[in-house]
């Protein structure tokens, strides 16, 4: 059974000898948000401004299914929100509550990768300590990092992409200067990508009050990430060997069931990733991409009402419809480009917006208590980090790294833990 974890679950610290352990990441985030130093305006647009901008077009903030042309959409779609788009053109072919702000679960790790993937070389190594693993929330999905084992950056990213490991996320965040700094940089990256429904509280997508994203924003993260050779290679990897210590390894498998074909799900032809997630609060979440006859489509499905495989079944149905209706379905909106890469700012003249139309998604999130209020202003040093990160993202474009080489098996393997979706 998958672990249930949500806002009511407390973070536990693993004991370690020696000096007093540093504060847990949840404590650090709370301190950063509540710092009594001079309040620094956060790089993200304030909630009121975000709610007035219809990023991608007016139809994407309207309530109800948005589609223009083609045959009837698949029956039995139960998700609270979904979106289907053409990866190359950015045209949104159909959507339902594309900007509804919902808990993203581990699909938020796409933004984590968009932000940090190029920071460290693949062969760079990290000796993991007990302190590195302290404060990971109870019930988190884990790849199984162990103190005393040295991992390459490539292996840590395999832990993120394949096993949705919150332990791997935390170690990479610490390599980046800390969890709070990484959260601030992720928020700055979201703003640069014009993902205005996204409020980042933790880098791994674990349930936290106020942490939200949307079907639209998650599609932006996936589209941007898939332009990077390393991101594409990681999310398309089905299995890898992972260090277990003592020269041994164990097999890890991608939790994307449309890619790996596990738990009764048939692999989808042409599937290339991207990221799934689950928490008791978010339900099942998924952004997937598939290529057929030279065309790549993106689908995000958030919180379907029915069984555990429904998120994959509804994704496959929307992909089938999109590939079949490619020549007749007309765009109902567009996935915008990053500001740092020449994208027009949503809401500005020539940008993609509804010119101040109310944002249906933000109203729904506020009513559910999941709005962005806690992160409209970030005080103290973390706020300064956010501003610096935002400026850096605006001034430079991401470099493209070579795709990582497949992981080689070691001499001996041990059995890994049963897979869970994170």
TrEMBL record:
Membrane is among the record's keywords: yes
Bias type Low complexity, positions: 355-367
Keyword Transmembrane on entry: yes
Annotated region described as Disordered, given as residue ranges: 342-370, 396-422
Entry superkingdom: Bacteria
Every Peptidase S11 D-alanyl-D-alanine carboxypeptidase A N-terminal domain range: 76-303
PANTHER family: D-ALANYL-D-ALANINE CARBOXYPEPTIDASE (PTHR21581), D-ALANYL-D-ALANINE CARBOXYPEPTIDASE DACB (PTHR21581:SF33)
SUPFAM superfamilies for this protein: beta-lactamase/transpeptidase-like
Transmembrane regions listed in the UniProt entry: 373-395
Protein name: Peptidase S11 D-alanyl-D-alanine carboxypeptidase A N-terminal domain-containing protein
InterPro entries: Beta-lactam/transpept-like, Peptidase_S11_N, TAT_signal
Species of provenance: Streptomyces asoensis
Record field: compositional bias (Gly residues): 344-354
The entry's keywords: Membrane, Transmembrane, Transmembrane helix
